Amino acid sequence: MQPNNTPSYDIMIIGAGMAGMAAALFAARKGLSVAQAGLTGETLYASGLFDLYGVAHGSSGAFIDNPWQGLQALRQTHPDHPFCKVAPEQIHEGLAVLTGFLETAGLSYRGYADRNARLITPVGTIKRTFRVPATMWAGAAALEEKTPCLIVDIQGLRGFSAAQIVGTLKPSWPQLRAATIALPWEERLGPKYAELMARTLAAEGPRSELADAFRPHLKTAQAVGLPAILGIHDTDTIHRDFERLLGVPVFEIPTMPPAISGTRLKEAFDTHMPQQGVKTFYHHRVHTAVRQANGQFVLEVGRSQPEETLVANNVLLATGRFLGKGLEAQREGIRESLFDLPVSQPENRSCWHRKTFLDPQGHAINLAGLEVDRSFRPLNEAGRPVFDNLYAAGSILAHQDWIRTKSGTGLAVATAHGAVEALTGGQAGR
Amino acid sequence: MTETTLSTQVLIIGGGATGTGLARDLALRGVACILVEKQDINAGASGGNHGLLHSGARYIASDPHSARECREEGALLKRLAPQCVEDTGGYFVAVPGDDEAYIADFAERCAASGVAAEAVDPKDALEQEPCLSPDAIAVFAVEDATIDPFMLSLDNLAQARSLGAKALLHHKVLGFDKRKGRFESVRLRDFHSGADVRIHAEQIVNASGAWAGEVAAMAGAHIDMVYSQGSLVISQSRLGQRVINRLRKAADADILVPAGTVSIFGTTSKRIDAPDNCRPTTAEIDAMLDDGMAMVPQLSSTRYIRAYAGVRPLVRSGTGSDDRAVSRGFSLLDHENHGLDNFITITGGKLTTYRLMAEKTADLVCRRLGNTEPCRTATDPLPASSQAQYTEPGLTPKLWFKKNDPGDLLLCECEMVSTSVFNEIAGSLTHNGHQPGLREIGQRSRVGKGPCQGSFCSLRMAAHMYDQGMLKDGEGIDELKDFLNERWRGMQPLLWGPAVAQAELQEALHCGLLGLETEETLKT
Fold first, then answer.
1. Cβ atoms of A251 and A176 closer than 8 Å
2. What is the pLDDT confidence band of residue A87, given thresholds at 50, 70 and 90?
3. Which residues in chain B (32-71) have CB-CB distances under 8 A to chain A?
4. In chain A, which residues have their Cβ closer than 8 Å to the Cβ of B480?
5. A 165-224: CB under 8 A from B
6. Contact at CB, A329 and B497, closer than 8 angstroms
7. Cβ distance B191 to B170 under 8 Å?
8. 3-class SS of residue B255
9. What burial class does residue A183 get, using C-beta atoms within 10 Å of its C-beta: 0-12 exposed, 13-18 middle, 19+ buried?
10. What's the farthest any 2 CA atoms get from each other in chain A?
11. B52-147+226-315: which CATH architecture?
12. Is A161 in CB contact (< 8 Å) with chain B?
């Protein structure tokens, strides 16, 4: 029996990654009362790029230029794939709502309507993605046109070498040039970290000093690429200012972890999601979730211990995979962590991973996860929803390999949208 | 394509403990030699073993002759190569269910082989080694020790080089040229440059371990080999101060060996059909851990950071299905019955007796050369070289803190390997005529051997190498892929629990963001 003043919500979203955030946004827009709890740790590893569908699912591994066409073909080849449970319009709308929200938080996104953009990575490979932070967008055009570009690295920032990027790409992009600069405001030796640099560049003075350090290397370059350090909040302003100072388009290149792209997203969500009307419990986990006889869920949330109790009419599980702790891989098998829901998985541990890490066929364990119906409700062994008011979205779902198909955010948004639609059945909240 | 020609007195094929030990022994006797190795030093069993300097107590029942050899050679190495050895001591431990008769006969058999074994009260043993099962029924203390096989081979080779010997890595034997019934020269290919090399030698020694059969076949000699794979796992932290052995007739899952800041548990005995097909499997590891838990319960819950396997080179003497029954003693074959008078094979044996194997081989070689210098490896200490110092766990963090130079950036944060150490190892490789790549540097340091298994440090190292001009063009992509695939071999059989989350992060970074698996280029 819970006390009368236990807060009650239409929907409790468990998970604070991209799927959880998207679901919270969509549910709040529909007028539902929304609570959300989750650990945002893994968001820190996000690259900031929103992938939709870059490589075909299945053994062909073909590169996808038009993700909508690719998803259409997927309906024929793999109808079990979670993408096939939503209509393309839902994915369009979901992405628009997400990027619109981030724009109000000072992080704008760009992209083509019908095709993937291509960007360079810190090791000189090509990254295919769909929606790109405005601070990185000029890189997509520069790549398409093979614009004469200066790539700059910063002494002390490990894992980012302009010489590596230029050396690897030069055969097909001859007018790339590399330069190294020392941070003008930091005389001490020692490692440099992207986050410190990014926070320092929030002020005009350091931006001006940095541009002064870049300028001698510019020469005939028509665009400049640098590691992603142009601020944490309000990156659009910092980026525009830096472009103004240099007089050419500037694009960020994602760095290896610890990178600021994940921090940007995390801080945007932390700050602005409550303003959407979502009751947030970030950096909290759900310790227990029990379904009552009347169908409602009673949940205990807290940091290391349960601290508060909530009641929800519906629960959406967006707890991620192994990194997010939504799934656990024991020697005997894979478990879903919170409700112990049935997990579709390979026969045994020796089938989980291939002998070669980079095997183009991908690892079978990545396809493991929760099987859901067309309403995104997890199924029991008999193929029926475990609970008619329990939903799941995001990377915890089975029959997809988001890493290999380059589908991270797209899948999160699509399935979150699908689950919230199904949950509301077209009705507004109470 | 031009061909390089070299001349020497003795050509040694194989860069493991035996080959490098032989190069040192011959060099000390004033014999000129060239060592060739198709991969890197210790690519075979010398790089895939327990790191154990056997007291001999393990072989008292099955192979008393080996037991005695181990005791003698172990004592020599502790005295002459202390930099490679940690004199940890060892226990033999029996738990309920183990063969009581074997336990009862143990002390006597040890005495008969001259192997020291002192009975210990299990309660006292448990105080000394809390990781032991509280149900242990019998314990004996023995003179086991641990040895760093990389440091051992690199130190042997370093002294050999200082005395004039040469070593060619990544050089594979293609064929032997006979003239008037003798081998006149050996043809090789340099894998890095693609160039052909021809080496003229008076005597050729096949010290290629598990590949001895393949090499001998090229020389027209047949050796009947049996390939027995042994898999091992490395725990994230050190379990126990001493070597812990199972007190029973030698079987799988018997030995837990401390190695600096980690421990190594193993092993298995799985028949494979070729030495190149060696890799640890999930089935072997599961079986091994389930068995070992009886002796050290913590084995079931500890986190493992790497699995690996080595191939024992066994020369078949009799018939029989138990590979442990094939003698672990070594085989020195002079091939005179094949009509060859300048081709010798030395194979089999164990790491502990490498020096003796090298001595016997050198004796035979020198007899044929007419060299009467005495063997000095049983008396002269093995000088510590700087070649392998960075493989020692815990060393580079100490050096870095002492140095206190903020400009010396850490490239591997798990094991705290700095830029200056990296540059030193790379410089040494270049100086010796070898290409400094990620795998080579990994071999000679602890880079990539910590919890991240190279996920992050590989990227920092590659970037650094481009900045230093050690890599150019698209070479970095191949280096990264190669390094990551190599680290994966040791991770994959251990992927359960938190390690699976680590693997997911690694794949999200290297495939999700960097696309290393797609090989997309600007042209596609």
1. no
2. very high
3. none
4. 123
5. 167-173, 180, 188-191
6. yes
7. yes
8. strand
9. buried
10. 73
11. 2-Layer Sandwich (3.30)
12. yes
A to B CB pairs, distance under 8 Å: 174
CA distance B480 to chain A (A): 9
CB contact under 8 A, B406 and A188: yes
Q: In whole angstroms, give the CA distance from residue A397 to residue B394.
A: 42
A chain contacts of residue B510, beta-carbon cutoff 8 Å: 357-358
Domain boundary, last residue among A234, A253, A272: A253
- Model confidence pLDDT, tens digit, residues A318-340: 999 999 999 999 988 999 999 99
- β-strand pairing of B171-179 with A250-253: unpaired
**Partner A contacted by B285 (CB < 8 A):** no
Contact assignment for B501 to A190 by CB distance below 8 Å: no
Beta strands in A292-349 (DSSP E): 297-302, 308-317, 327-330, 333-336
Please report the beta strands in A124-210, taking only residues with DSSP state E, as ranges in sequence order: 126-129, 132-133, 149-154, 176-181
**Backbone φ, ψ for residue B474 (5° rounding):** -90, 15
Residue B71: other Cβ atoms inside 10 A? 23
ipTM above 0.90, yes or no: yes
- Alpha carbons within 13 angstroms on the beta-carbon side of residue B489 total 15
Buried b (16+ CB within 10 A) or exposed e, B304-319: bbbbbbbbbbbbeeee
Nearest chain A alpha carbon to B502: A323
pLDDT in tens, A235-283: 999 999 999 999 999 999 999 988 899 999 999 999 999 999 999 999 9
The closest of B188, B179, B181 to B5, measured between CA atoms, is B188
Q: Answer yes or no: do A133 and A244 share one domain.
A: yes
Q: Do B509 and A159 touch (CB under 8 A)?
A: no
Contact assignment for B409 to A123 by CB distance below 8 Å: no
Which of chain A's residues have a Cβ under 8 Å away from the Cβ of B283? 350
Q: Closest to A159 (Cβ–Cβ): which among B281, B463, B510? A: B463
Which of residues 406 through 425 in chain B touch A, CB cutoff 8 A? Answer: 406-407, 409-411
Comparing A124 with B327, the larger pLDDT belongs to A124
Nearest CB among B474, B489, B517 relative to A168 is that of B474
Is some CB atom of chain A closer than 8 A to the CB atom of B462? yes
The full DSSP string for B415-472 is: TTEEHHHHHHHHHHHHHTT----HHHHHHTS-TT-STTTTTTHHHHHHHHHHHTTSS-
CA angle B383, B389, B446 (to 5 degrees): 155
> Does A1 reside within a domain?
no
Residue B190 and residue B169: Cα distance in Å, rounded?
8
Of the CA atoms within 13 Å of residue B485, those in its CB half-sphere come to 14
Beta-ladder partners of A118: A128
List beta partners, residue B145. B53
H helical segments located in A247-324: 260-272
State whether A204 and A235 are in the same domain: yes
CB contact under 8 A, B520 and A156: no
Please state, for a pLDDT cut of 90, what percent of chain A lies above it. Answer: 90
pLDDT tens digits along B33-90 = 999 999 999 999 999 999 999 999 999 988 888 899 999 999 999 999 999 999 999 9
pTM of the model: 0.88
User: Would the CB atoms of A168 and B497 count as touching at under 8 Å?
Assistant: no
Domain range B3-45+150-224+328-369, its CATH number among 3.30.470.10, 3.40.50.2000, 3.90.1150.10, 3.50.50.60: 3.50.50.60
By the 10 Å C-beta count (0-12 exposed, 13-18 middle, 19+ buried), A425 is classed as exposed
* Partner-chain residue, chosen from A47, A158, A170, that has the shortest CB–CB distance to B409: A158
For residue B472, the distance in angstroms to the closest alpha carbon of chain A comes to 6
